[in-house]
Amino acid sequence: EVQLLESGGGLVQPGGSLRLSCAASGFTFSNYAMSWVRQAPGKGLEWVSVISNSGGSTYYADSVKGRFTISRDNSKKTLYLQMESLRADDTAVFYCAKEGGNIVGAIDYWGQGTLVTVSS
Amino acid sequence: DIQMTQFSSSLSASVGDRVTIACRASQSISSYLNWYQQKPGKAPKLLIYAASSLQSGVPSRFSGSGSGTDFTLTISSLQPEDFATYYCQQSYSSPPWTFGQGTKVEIK
Known about the structure:
The structure holds two protein chains of two kinds.
Chain A: E1 3-7, E2 10-12, E3 18-25, E4 34-39, E5 45-51, E6 58-60, E7 68-73, E8 78-83, E9 92-99, E10 107-110, E11 114-118
Parallel strand pairs in A: 2-11
Antiparallel strand pairs in A: 1-3, 3-8, 4-5, 4-9, 5-6, 7-8, 9-10, 9-11
Chain B: E1 4-5, E2 10-13, E3 19-25, E4 33-38, E5 45-49, E6 53-54, E7 62-67, E8 70-75, E9 85-90, E10 98-99, E11 103-107
Parallel strand pairs in B: 2-11
Antiparallel strand pairs in B: 1-3, 3-8, 4-5, 4-9, 5-6, 7-8, 9-10, 9-11
């Protein structure tokens, strides 16, 4: 059974930093691209970032480019999101997501989400 | 970046109704279009990928169609468990991938 377990969310002040982690199990982690998707309270889904299966390629939404860094450790089956210079509009539930193999970009498994709140 | 537009933010329907949800891309995305269902407090669930391919385990009352810029998700006979918010997502060429704003299907 595929499981994605996020951690690291919490309350942080504007301008602060936070690192999210996502522990994966139930599939061959190193074979799949992984993404982060977020959802602000009461709002829709926003794609944040994706990393290739090897970690060699990364992409970001314009809204987080230069502030967020996605990375992965295939030996630990763990995905990360380092977030810097956080702003109030970064407040959201952050989902760790696995891309399926049938089509690039289609997310076939999601974690339960971790809430990041940016507030003073 | 490619923008995705879902024309209806919400719609009301009854159990047994045929429901269609539309999504338009700001440029041609071939068939790189995916549909998700999200219930309150839960993570999204993949329903349809590549515009018309049904994800494993998804009931056959869900179907997708379209290519290029215009796409549709159809629920042939709405069931009580289908009341949720539905999102389209494009995954054409290289990232960023983008989602539509979502369409909430409510009980009439």
